[in-house]
Write a structure and sequence with these properties.
By secondary structure, the chain is mostly helical. It contains 10 helices and no strands. It is globular, with a radius of gyration of 15 Å. The chain starts with a helix and ends with a helix.
């Protein structure tokens, strides 16, 4: 599948799974994909791959897909076994936004790591950047406010609240690495 065909395939799939049962999650996913387009200059030939992963990253929340309750794995399994997606998209969805830390908290880290190899660290950083710079409604934010919003929504003592606070330093580091790459790209002579 060509890279453009990948994004043309990904949007309707994500919309079909999220727009009716989870319209806010669909708005978030569209916003994350929009963030991916804003960093395309540092992604090169992987720009469309990132946009596809961005719009699909939360499909595991769809009621019909939620099997384990761990949305990165549920979404990745659906993409691999039902949608027959590009394997790189599958792995990006499985590992988005420090998912390994949440998997560890759920006792599922070995399963996640064995089933889904990690993609290139720069792509993992890029997807984390896109996700953590987008509100639940799809508008731009910053990772500090996003982490605070997630912790507040789930509660500080919940599994997600505890995970997101534990992941916060890596989320901020991922974001900083993407911002540095964007800054370096702007400094390059044209």
């Amino acid at each position: 599948m060509s890279s453009t065909a990948l994004t043309e395939w990904a949007y309707p799939l994500a919309e079909s799974l999220l727009s009716v049962p989870l319209p806010r999650r669909w708005a978030h996913s569209q916003g994350v994909a929009e963030r991916a387009r804003t960093i395309a200059s540092i992604l090169g030939s992987d720009a469309d791959l990132m946009e596809a992963a961005a719009v699909l990253h939360d499909i595991g929340y769809a009621p019909d897909l939620a099997k384990t309750g761990f949305h990165p794995m549920d979404g990745a399994r659906y993409l691999r076994h039902v949608a027959h997606a590009d394997e790189r998209v599958v792995c990006l969805v499985a590992h988005h936004s420090c998912a390994w830390m949440e998997a560890e908290a759920r006792g599922m880290r070995d399963e996640l790591e064995e089933e889904f190899p990690r993609e290139h660290p720069q792509l993992a950083d890029a997807l984390c950047y896109c996700d953590m710079n987008t509100t639940p409604d799809g508008t731009p934010t910053n990772p500090v406010d996003r982490v605070n919003e997630i912790a507040g929504r789930y509660g500080p003592d919940s599994l997600i609240g505890t995970f997101i606070r534990r992941a916060e330093p890596e989320i901020l580091a991922s974001t900083a690495r993407v911002i540095e790459r964007l800054s370096a790209a702007k400094r390059q002579p044209t």
